[in-house]
Structures are given as structure tokens and as C-alpha cells.
């Protein structure tokens, strides 16, 4: 216990020290929200990865889907690495950086409002961001607190409050730069920590081959493959269709999440995108692939230890697996998940507060807002956002995975298509964007009441629907003014002069 407490105190001290160190970089709005657009590829890549993977993945998703699908749940982690990291950086990275700088936008709603020349789009996007970032934040608190409860026997409410206060302190002090530096430190911890945990858990189950053999002897209890022995170690697992839904939600979803896309706004320059792409993908393979691979052995745990009133508590699976590790390693695991979660929380609260202040209050409710006042209001909203999330987290309505599904489904369902088409296609219209907002949020909210699909699949459907609805509506609705479109896309037309190194004579060239 003493070792675990020392590790935690050291961790907290470093986080707060970084917040104090970064205060100078957060002296204006651009610095507080985007780090002055001077953040290098390593910090940006780690900020992207640590914002992506939190206690929601490690505790909630890895446990629930590892238990349901067995080792095939590793596909989720690989999907996160290839689609959610590699392709996201390749497809969105450079264009987002260039156009957001050209339009002088600092948030997702601000970008959409300026790209489509609509104040109403900006305001509604800000409201969607604020409302649906809350359940995601609550799910992070939930997963983190369950692990803390296992390691320290601290009441759930105390855990939630402690994490909220610590996250709020360093974000309020140092803004984006504090979160980026802390994300880098936390990312290093995550990389080494997840490797140590996987090795230890598998050794506790007799080694890889023994654990694999025992898992292969289990019969599937999923309707699609019920009674089939070996399904939990098969290539596509027990339920390939629902597995695909999870891959789509957790991988494609990052393309439309404000707190993820904002990382591209802040990166130093275009050249940094290539380096960031490689680092981010490597990080995702190790962390996400490792988490879901670990979760794939969840069936080997004692069911009685994760069952309450005859129902399996999925959020308790990973903590139960980890509780059997040596105390020192448990301390490392707690710091690992704490690192993942606090980085995600800091990104969420910063995104939400900046969106509300810059896109909803500034120029709409308060005219001629000074930089000093904007910074003050953003810091106030960080406190408000954390407080609301804590209240929801204390009595969460459902499992972690379902909370995240609702949040990601609505946010990515609404924003993914307008962002993607807005970066590449001049034909996207304002009504097309509105249709994307309505389909993304509409499908998610309707499913909360009608329950035509589980929240995970509903979220995936909302994203795919947006990719279809936005272009279809855009093709049959009035186009934007040509001058407005040309202005937005002029940033991609700047020519670069390259000095010729070797000049061959004309006669040589002709030969």
C-alpha cells in the first residue's frame, strides 16, 4: 500500500508541476486552447493517443468485448490503430491543419461555422459538443474509479471527486500545453505499463499456450455460435457482425470527435504530420491492441467474482483480473489507467469549455469579449463541466461501453461527414451539414428510447448514415456562394518553389 501511495503522489506531483510550468504558454486564447499552434509531432501524437485510450477502453471495452468475443476482440485494437490512428492522420491530418489555420478556427464548431459560412451551424455544433461530451467524461470517471476502488478500497464517490479536482487543476493552470506535455509523460507510462500487465496476467494463467488452450475448451454462449467450442480463440470470434459494429464505432468515431480532431489544429507544421502519423499508429497498436488482447482472456476469470444478482458486471472484469497481480504491479496498473484517463479527461474538459466560450458565448451572448475575459470564462466552464460530469458519474445510467457509445455515436455521427466532405469536396452544402447533424444526433437519441439496436451498433449506424446523408442532400440543395468556397479551398492552392539541384542539357533529356 505504501508503494502504491508513493507512486500516486509522485504522479500527481509531476502533473501539477507541468501545469505550473505551462502557465506562460496559456496567457492568451490561442495558447490556452491550441498551445500557440507550436506543438511538435511527438507531443501531438501522444496527445492524440492518450486522448483516444482511457479507462473506458482499458476497463470498460476490453473487459466487456473481450468477454463476449474472446481473442477476436484484438481486431478492435487493430482497427483503432489502422482506421482510428493511421488513416485518420493520413486523411484528415494535413488538410485539417492547413484549412483550420487558414480559417483561423480553434474548435470544431468554429471550423464548421467558418467553412460553411453559417453562424447557426457554429452555435448548434457547440451545443451538440457540450451535451454529448458529458456522458463520455462520466464513463471515464466510472472506469477509473472502479480500478481505484479495487486497489485502495476507497469509496467510489471519493475517487471520482479526487480525479476531477486533479484534472481541473492542471488544465486550468496550463491549458493545452500542460495537457500535451502531461499526455507525453502519461503515454510513456501507458506503453510500458500495458506490456507489463499482459505478461503478468498471462503468466498467472499458466503462460500463453496454457491460457490459449483453456480458452479454446470453452463453449460459446452467444446466440450466433452457441455451443460451439473454440469460438473464443477463433479468427472472427463468436459474433462477427456485432464485432464489426464495435470496430466501426471505436475506429471511425475518432474522425468526428472534437477533442481528437483539435489535435491536428495545434500541430506545429505540415511536415510534423508525417512523423506524428508513425508515432500515433505505433502507440495505438501497442496500447489498444494490448488492451483488447488482454481482455480476450476474460473468460478465464471466476464468473462468481464478477456477478451481481445473477448478472455479469462487465466493468468489474478487468479490475478482477488485475486484483490477482502483485501489489507493486497493481500500483503500476493504477498509474497506467490513471495516466490514460486523466489525459482523456483533460482533453474533454478543455474542448468543452473552449467550445462553449468561443462558439456560444463570444459574439452571441457577450459582445466585444476581451482575451482576458475569454480565458476567465473558459476556466470557469472547466469547473462547471467537471462538476456536471461528476454528478452523472456518481450514478451512471448504464455500463461504461454504453455511455461511450451514446457519446461517440452522436458526436461522430453529427460531425464526421461535414468535416470530411468539408475538407475535400466543394459541393457540400449548408443543408447537407444540417442533415448530417439531424441524422447523427437523431439516430442516437431515438435509439435511447426505441432501442432498435444496442448503443454500440446505433453509434456505428449514425456515423455511416452521415457519410451517406450529407452528400445526397448536398447534391439536391443550393450550393454555397462560389466566392465562399474558393476562399476556403484557396489554402490548398499555394505553390511551393523548389530549387532545381541538377539540370541536364536539353539534348540529354531528349535522348
Low-confidence stretches: none
- Overall form: globular
CATH fold naming? Sodium/glucose cotransporter
Strand order of the largest sheet: 1-2
Structural class assignment: mainly alpha
Q: How much strand? A: under 5%
Topology, element by element:
Blueprint: H1 2-21, H2 29-34, H3 41-52, H4 55-69, H5 74-103, H6 108-115, H7 119-152, H8 156-204, H9 208-216, H10 240-252, H11 258-266, H12 271-295, E1 307-308, E2 311-312, H13 317-322, H14 327-361, H15 371-394, H16 400-424, H17 430-450, H18 455-475, H19 482-489, H20 506-510
Describe the structure.
- With 511 residues, this protein is mainly α.
- It has a single domain (2-11, 37-482), classed as Up-down Bundle (Sodium/glucose cotransporter).
- The chain has helices at residues 2-21, 29-34, 41-52, 55-69, 74-103, 108-115, 119-152, 156-204, 208-216, 240-252, 258-266, 271-295, 317-322, 327-361, 371-394, 400-424, 430-450, 455-475, 482-489, 506-510, and strands at 307-308, 311-312.
- Helix 7 (119-152) packs across helix 15 and helix 7 (119-152) packs antiparallel against helix 16.
Briefly, what is this?
The chain is mostly helical.
Give a quick set of tags describing it.
511 residues; mainly alpha; 2 strands
Amino acid at each position: 500500500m505504501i508503494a502504491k501511495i508513493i507512486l500516486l503522489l509522485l504522479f500527481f506531483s509531476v502533473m501539477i508541476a507541468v501545469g505550473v510550468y505551462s502557465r506562460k504558454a496559456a496567457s492568451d486564447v490561442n495558447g490556452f486552447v491550441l498551445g500557440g499552434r507550436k506543438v511538435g509531432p511527438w507531443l501531438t501524437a501522444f496527445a492524440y493517443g492518450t486522448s483516444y485510450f482511457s479507462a473506458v477502453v482499458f476497463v470498460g471495452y476490453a473487459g466487456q468485448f473481450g468477454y463476449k468475443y474472446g481473442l477476436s476482440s484484438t481486431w478492435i485494437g487493430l482497427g483503432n490503430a489502422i482506421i482510428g490512428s493511421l488513416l485518420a492522420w493520413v486523411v484528415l491530418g494535413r488538410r485539417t491543419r492547413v484549412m483550420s489555420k487558414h480559417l483561423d478556427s480553434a474548435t470544431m464548431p468554429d471550423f464548421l461555422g467558418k467553412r460553411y459560412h453559417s453562424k447557426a451551424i457554429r452555435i448548434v455544433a457547440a451545443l451538440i459538443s457540450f451535451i454529448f461530451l458529458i456522458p463520455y467524461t462520466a464513463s471515464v470517471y466510472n472506469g477509473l474509479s472502479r480500478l481505484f476502488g479495487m486497489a485502495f478500497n476507497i469509496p467510489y464517490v471519493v475517487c471520482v471527486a479526487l480525479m476531477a479536482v486533479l484534472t481541473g487543476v492542471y488544465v486550468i493552470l496550463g491549458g493545452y500545453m500542460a495537457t500535451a506535455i502531461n499526455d507525453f509523460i502519461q503515454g510513456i507510462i501507458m506503453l510500458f505499463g500495458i506490456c507489463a500487465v499482459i505478461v503478468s496476467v498471462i503468466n498467472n494463467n499458466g503462460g500463453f499456450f496454457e491460457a490459449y488452450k483453456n480458452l479454446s475448451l470453452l463453449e460459446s454462449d452467444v446466440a450466433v455460435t452457441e455451443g460451439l467450442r473454440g469460438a473464443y480463440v477463433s479468427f472472427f470470434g463468436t459474433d462477427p457482425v456485432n464485432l464489426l459494429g464495435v470496430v466501426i464505432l471505436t475506429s471511425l468515431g475518432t474522425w468526428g470527435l472534437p477533442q481528437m480532431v483539435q489535435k491536428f489544429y495545434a500541430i506545429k507544421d505540415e511536415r510534423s504530420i508525417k512523423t506524428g502519423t508513425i508515432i500515433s499508429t505505433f502507440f495505438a497498436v501497442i496500447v489498444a491492441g494490448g488492451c483488447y488482447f488482454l481482455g480476450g482472456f476474460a473468460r478465464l476469470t471466476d464468473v462468481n467474482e464478477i456477478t451481481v444478482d445473477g448478472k455479469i458486471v462487465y466493468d468489474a472484469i478487468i479490475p478482477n483480473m488485475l486484483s490477482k497481480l502483485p501489489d507493486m504491479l497493481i500500483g503500476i496498473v493504477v498509474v497506467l489507467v490513471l495516466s490514460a484517463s486523466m489525459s482523456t479527461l483533460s482533453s474533454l474538459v478543455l474542448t468543452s469549455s473552449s467550445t462553449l466560450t468561443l462558439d456560444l458565448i463570444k459574439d452571441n451572448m457577450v459582445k466585444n469579449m476581451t482575451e482576458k475575459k475569454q480565458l476567465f470564462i473558459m476556466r470557469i466552464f472547466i469547473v462547471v463541466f467537471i462538476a456536471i460530469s461528476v454528478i452523472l458519474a456518481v450514478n451512471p445510467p448504464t455500463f461504461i461501453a454504453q455511455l461511450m457509445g451514446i457519446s461517440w455515436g452522436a458526436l461522430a455521427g453529427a460531425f464526421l461527414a461535414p468535416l470530411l466532405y468539408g475538407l475535400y469536396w466543394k459541393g457540400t452544402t449548408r443543408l447537407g451539414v444540417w442533415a448530417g447533424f439531424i441524422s447523427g444526433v437523431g439516430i442516437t437519441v431515438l435509439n435511447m428510447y426505441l432501442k432498435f439496436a444496442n448503443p454500440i451498433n446505433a453509434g456505428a449506424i449514425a456515423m455511416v448514415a452521415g457519410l451517406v446523408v450529407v452528400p445526397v442532400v448536398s447534391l439536391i440543395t443550393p450550393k454555397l456562394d462560389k466566392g465562399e468556397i474558393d476562399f476556403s479551398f484557396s489554402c490548398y492552392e499555394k505553390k511551393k518553389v523548389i530549387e532545381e539541384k541538377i539540370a541536364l542539357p536539353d539534348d540529354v533529356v531528349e535522348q
